[in-house]
Amino acid sequence: DQQVKQNSPSLSVQEGRISILNCDYTNSMFDYFLWYKKYPAEGPTFLISISSIKDKNEDGRFTVFLNKSAKHLSLHIVPSQPGDSAVYFCAASRGSGNTGKLIFGQGTTLQVKP
Amino acid sequence: ETGVTQSPTHLIKTRGQQVTLRCSSQSGHNTVSWYQQALGQGPQFIFQYYREEENGRGNFPPRFSGLQFPNYSSELNVNALELDDSALYLCASSLDSLAKNIQYFGAGTRLSVL
Lengths: 114, 114
Known about the structure:
Distance between the termini of chain B: 37 Å
Strand content of chain A: over 45%
Order of helices and strands of chain A: EEEEEEEEEEE
Structural class of chain B: mainly beta
Shape of chain B: globular
Helix content of chain A: under 10%
Shape of chain A: globular
Oligomer: heterodimer
Structural class of chain A: mainly beta
Radius of gyration of chain B: 13 Å
Largest interface: A-B, 30 and 29 residues
Order of helices and strands of chain B: EEEEEEEEEEE
């Protein structure tokens, strides 16, 4: 049972435009969500997180939106840069628990074309 | 500040053998989590160690075991290797076990079982 899903395996955008990566989840007990970025031969790197008490969190070019009723979150990158080309994973956890077990989606490969 | 380091980077084993993977956590972190990432999938939680005790386990059989040492470094041991154990094994450290604390990942160990 895939509790966190990223239904788009890949996304291609032009440099300077907006990239929107989507993620859906099924477990209503999740209350903390994160986005990680992964380059080849490197480990995942933390990008941005959001608690379920918020519906938006911004950090520079990166904004995460959370729609709890739809069990949906999205990552917006504006403007997109070629260096943003990587695999993006969304992850969820039960923040009220004392185990930081992260449930990851399958990932979306973003390609930003110059 | 030293990040999370894993060794070895690559490993080839045959079915039925045993393997030990190692992880040095980031300075100041007392919690280590291990994940398995199969090709084309997101990382899957194996288990977490907090202050040398197992603190949560994912859906993996008992032949996956671990240790955490007083300096908070950690080992993942896999007995009776199977072909399906071929994957990237990621270690992540965090300040403590609370879900709100960001997990920082190492580059991983690529295990191939022949």
